[in-house]
Amino acid sequence: MAKCPECGTEVDQTAKWIIEGKPDSNEERARLEIGMFNCPMCLKPFKKVLRRTRVDRTGAHLIKICGFLMQTKAYLFWRTL
Ligand SMILES: [Zn+2]
């Protein structure tokens, strides 16, 4: 879900794709998760960056993100008890 920049309607995502940038001087890449939306009110398509992550050569950032997600899952799990 994302808000239309024109009218503010909450719109469901129609497509998603991932773009990886070129490595910069630190050998890190930016990875962007882009969502594609179509506003039913103003019939305008718009894009939104859903997530921006950095991927380095060792993948350390990915491991960090996985750890974070697992923590979040555990947190949600304990909250439902
Ligand atoms: Zn709209």
Keywords:
single chain, 81 residues, alpha+beta, 3-stranded antiparallel β-sheet, two-stranded antiparallel sheet, 43% strand, flat, binds zinc ion
Any overview of this molecule?
The chain is an alpha+beta fold and 81 residues long. The chain has one domain. 26% of the residues lie in helices and 43% in strands. The chain has one helix and five strands. The strands form two sheets. Strands 3-4-5 form a three-stranded antiparallel β-sheet. A two-stranded antiparallel ribbon has the order 1-2. The protein is flat and about 45 Å long. The model has no long low-confidence stretch (mean pLDDT 81). The structure holds zinc ion. The site of zinc ion has 8 residues, from loops. Zinc ion (ZN) binds next to loops.
- Backbone shape: flat
> Reading side by side through the largest sheet, how are the strands ordered?
3-4-5
Helix content: 25-40%
For the terminal residues, how far apart are their CA atoms?
28 Å
- Note the main sheet: 3 strands, antiparallel
Q: What value does the average pLDDT take? A: 81
Q: What is the number of strand segments?
A: 5
Q: Could you provide a short overview of the structure?
A:
With 81 residues, this protein is of the alpha+beta class.
Furnish the topology, listing elements before pairings:
Blueprint: E1 2-3, E2 10-11, E3 13-20, E4 28-38, E5 45-56, H1 60-80
Antiparallel strand pairs: 1-2, 3-4, 4-5
